[in-house]
Amino acid sequence: MPLSAPLRVAIAGSPKYFAHHGRPKNLEELLDHDCINICTASHGDNFRWVFQQPSHTVELVVKGRLFVNDAPVLIQAAMEGLGLIYTFEQHIADHLTAGSLETCLEAYCPEFLDYQIYYPNRQQKSPALSALTQHLQHPENTAEHSEP
User: Fold this and answer.
1) Residue 127 and residue 53: Cα distance in Å, rounded?
2) DSSP helix/strand/coil, 10
3) Could you report the per-residue pLDDT of 57-71, keeping only the tens digit for each?
4) Among 12, 47, 134, 138, which residue has the least CB neighbours within 10 Å?
5) Other C-beta atoms within 10 Å of 87: how many?
6) For the whole model, what pTM was predicted?
7) How far is residue 108's CA from residue 3's CA, in Å, rounded to a whole number?
């Protein structure tokens, strides 16, 4: 059962960053930009930025002077003009609307499958699983039936 819309990646930077450094027009130009890297504890190295080309997927290790391991810090650094970030569009939607961040390279940004929940499709689900799936499918109907 889907729990969200598909997740689209965004490359974003502040208007200040783009005014000073320009806006990359392709992946080759991105390699010349200051990118804010994410250090992943699970891999111990830099997160690879994944892009979609017409016939294949491209993984880039971008360069930059700032490394973070926290999404709010990543976004704040981009808003301060310290570089470009790679994140999900939904994580920065408010900043895009407010104009504190802008996107680039949209044609290269992939879309990933949405979050899903998987459960056994049995005739007799437990009451807890039934309540959870009902709430996830129709959240507007569950608030009125909840007890204080």
Assistant:
1) 46
2) strand
3) 999 989 999 999 889
4) 138
5) 18
6) 0.75
7) 25
Name the burial class of residue 98, with classes exposed (0-12), middle (13-18) and buried (19+) by CB atoms within 10 angstroms of its CB.
exposed
Beta strand 36-38 with 66-68 is parallel
> 16 forms bridges with which residues in the sheet?
none
| 3-class SS of residue 56 | coil
Q: Give CA angle at 57 (17, 111), nearest 5°.
A: 65
What are the residues whose beta carbons fall under 8 Å from the beta carbon of 68, sequence distance 6 or more?
36, 37, 38, 39, 74, 77
Q: Which residues contact 4 (CB under 8 A, 6 or more apart)?
A: 114, 115
> What's the pLDDT at 143?
53
